[in-house]
Every structure is written in structure tokens, then in C-alpha cells.
Amino acid sequence: MEFSVVEIGYDQDQVDSCLEDLCRQLGRMAAQAEAAAEATEELTLVREEVERLRGLLSGKPGGYRTPTATRFQEMLAVAQEEAAQIRAQARDELTSAREEARLLRDQVYAEALQARRDFETALQARRRREARVDEILREVDLVAVSVEPGAGGTTASAVPATRAAATGPAERTTPAG
Predict the structure, then answer these.
(1) Fewer CB within 10 Å, N- or C-terminus of the chain?
(2) What residue spans carry the Low complexity bias annotation (predicted)?
(3) How many CB atoms lie within 10 A of CB 36?
């Protein structure tokens, strides 16, 4: 992301807009991570239910099967399968959210580094311009040049020395009349 360089830095509106976009992206990532955490909690509850059902089934003698016990076995198998699917989905969502967060973090870091470099470059350019202006201003000396009365209404005026040197003695004074 690039920002326009203005007189003393970057365009504040562009920087604010960029930061707002990054905050929105980070918010979406946080919501995905939270959803993955909730799925993990749901998975834990399903596991507890599976263990409870296993406990009920293990209380019966091994060879003794009733229609109810068979139904419990079927329900247990379905619950275990659903739990495995929920676990896999939660793992996938969490992995995806982590990867997306890592990519976003890397992107934001790279953009921040680039913005820092751009800022430093702009700051150096500005300092060079200021130094050049100061250098030019130090070279300019003001000298008083006499002007004949009546020509401009003043007897002397301040003219930069570089301009006074560029004009010959005859050009410095204006003829009366």
C-alpha cells in the first residue's frame, strides 16, 4: 500500500483509511478464531457425551444385547462419527484462521516497514531541500544601493548583492528627468 506524500509526511486520510481496513480484517480474523474456539468447546461436550454413553454400555455384560443396547451402540457410533467430523472441521477452521492471521500480520508488518521507509525517504528529501534553501539564503547579502532622489522617492533601497553585482554602476542609478 502506498500513501501520497504531502508537505510534511503522508496523507492522514489515506493512512487512517488503511488502518481502518486492517482493523476490519483483524476483526474478521478474531471472529473466525472465536468460532473455531466455540467449535472446540462443542467438540468437548460431544466427547463427554460419548464417554458417558460408553460408560452406560460398558455396565452391561458383553454377551447380553437388548434392542436398547443395540440402539445405544448405534447412537454411540453416530455420535463418535459426528464428533470426529466436528473435530476435523474445528481443526481446519482454526488452522485456516491462524494462517490467515499470520498472512495478515506479515502483510501489515511489510506495509508498516514500507511506510517507514517512504517516510524516511520523504523526510531526508525535505531536509535536503531545507538545507539547500538555508545555503542559498546564506549566500544572499543585502547591500544598500543609492538611488537618485525623485526617481523612486527613496534615497536607498535594499537589493540583494547578487543582483547589485549583476547590474553595472550605470544601471544602479536612474537618470533624473
Answers:
(1) C
(2) 154-177
(3) 19
